[in-house]
Amino acid sequence: MKIEIRNPFAELSRQQYCIWIGSMLIIVMSAMICGRFDWLSVGTSLLGVTMLIFMAKGDVFAQILTIFFCLLYGAVSYTFSYYGEMITYLGMTLPVCLFTLGSWLRHPYKKGEVKVADVTKRSVAAISVLSVIVTIIFYFILEYFNTPNLFFSTISITTSFFSACLSFLRSPYYALAYGANDIVLVILWVLASFEDISYIAMVACFGVFLFNDIYAFFNWKRMKKRQNI
Prior knowledge:
mainly alpha, two-stranded antiparallel sheet, globular
């Protein structure tokens, strides 16, 4: 059997290249302006925007990048004792990402592009109930570890879980859910940057994430329309 090796970067459109490069420049410049260039935070942020541009085009390669992003982001979160973020991404987002990778591989539309799906009301209801249960459980875990900014850390768990589930279901609305999570994370890392200015790179990271997720939502809607013709 012939194995076809593809270069996902060669399949980005000019618009996607502009968004990707622009996002990386914003992150690097913000880290340089703050006066403390933390390689771990910056590297994680650059990997994150790379992951998102492929998520925006429904490329299964994004799920592979997400696995590595979860590992690096967990390490960054640990440095500020954001155990909620660390536990969320390593203990929840990462496993869900592995399932999502399998789901996207099983539902291709064409080379490198996943088939966009509709989400039923029953699925949304089930995800909502599970999100509440997960949030309650993790709240007590985070409280036990004296997690800073406990309220926003807990909200981040809710939005992260909901987003990951919608991504697994291949719904365009995953991007809006991640956008809500981005707003929460911007707040979390702004609070962290008051104590250590090097975390300003993470603020820029999730600000850029928000823009990318908004773009992803509209691009997935276009993908769905094109796939259903």
